[in-house]
């Protein structure tokens, strides 16, 4: 009897260890997913803040080094330096530009995170003035944003593609 009990106890221990490791791994995955969602939400808040304030540094800090911005009717803007130059060009052309409202309505982020990448799609309503004397302009756009996890756990935009 004793010869049979030892192997059975050993096998039971292996099974318990296997299932316990799976449960711990699953919990760790859920914790990592929750941390990613929180970091992505932080990026969303930063995006709103820097868009409303038009902070030049902040408008660049939300991008990866190799980020790509695709806007209709314009050539692709590739890389943080090019995005920064494009932003500066826009400010020079419209020195009194002011964002009055910026409200992204994003969807599908909760299940679309994989291997350090995430994407979301949605619609954005915005209102801005090109100059203090100009009337406000309203805009409604649709788009896709791809984000990449950074080595510090934060997220940045790698690709933003809009239709407006």
Structure, described:
- This protein is α+β, with helices and mostly antiparallel strands.
- It has one domain (33-162): Nuclear Transport Factor 2, Chain: A, CATH 3.10.450.
- Helices cover 44% and strands 34% of the residues.
- The protein has 3 helices and 7 strands, in the order ααββαβββββ.
- Strands 1, 2, 3, 4, 5, 6 and 7 form a 7-stranded mixed β-sheet that branches.
- The longest helix is centred in the N-terminal third of the chain and has 52 residues, at 2-53.
Quick recap:
The chain has helices at 2-53, 56-61, 80-93; strands at residues 63-70, 77-78, 98-107, 113-114, 117-129, 137-149, 155-162. It is of the alpha+beta class.
CATH class: Alpha Beta
* Number of structurally distinct domains: 1
Q: What is the name of the CATH topology? A: Nuclear Transport Factor 2, Chain: A
Give the tally of β-strands: 7
Straight-line N-to-C gap: 77 Å
Q: Helix segment count?
A: 3
Average residue-wise pLDDT: 86
DSSP strand content? 25-35%
Please bin the fraction of helical residues.
40-55%
Topology as H/E string? HHEEHEEEEE
Give the uncertain stretches in residue-range form. none
Rg: 24 Å
């Amino acid at each position: 009897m004793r010869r049979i009990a030892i192997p059975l106890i050993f096998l039971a221990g292996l099974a318990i260890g296997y299932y316990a490791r799976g449960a711990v791994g699953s919990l760790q995955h859920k914790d990592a997913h929750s941390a990613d969602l929180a970091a992505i939400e932080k990026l969303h808040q930063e995006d709103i803040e820097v868009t409303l304030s038009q902070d030049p540094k902040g408008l660049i800090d939300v991008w990866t080094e190799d980020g790509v911005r695709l806007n209709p009717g314009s050539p692709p803007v590739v890389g943080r330096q090019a995005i920064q130059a494009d932003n500066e060009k826009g400010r020079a052309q419209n020195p009194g530009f002011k964002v009055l409202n910026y409200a992204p309505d994003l969807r599908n982020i909760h299940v679309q995170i994989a291997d350090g990448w995430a994407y979301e799609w949605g619609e954005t309503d915005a209102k801005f003035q090109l100059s203090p004397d100009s009337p406000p302009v309203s805009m409604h756009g649709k788009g896709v944003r791809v984000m990449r996890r950074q080595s510090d756990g934060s997220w940045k935009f790698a690709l933003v593609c809009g239709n407006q």
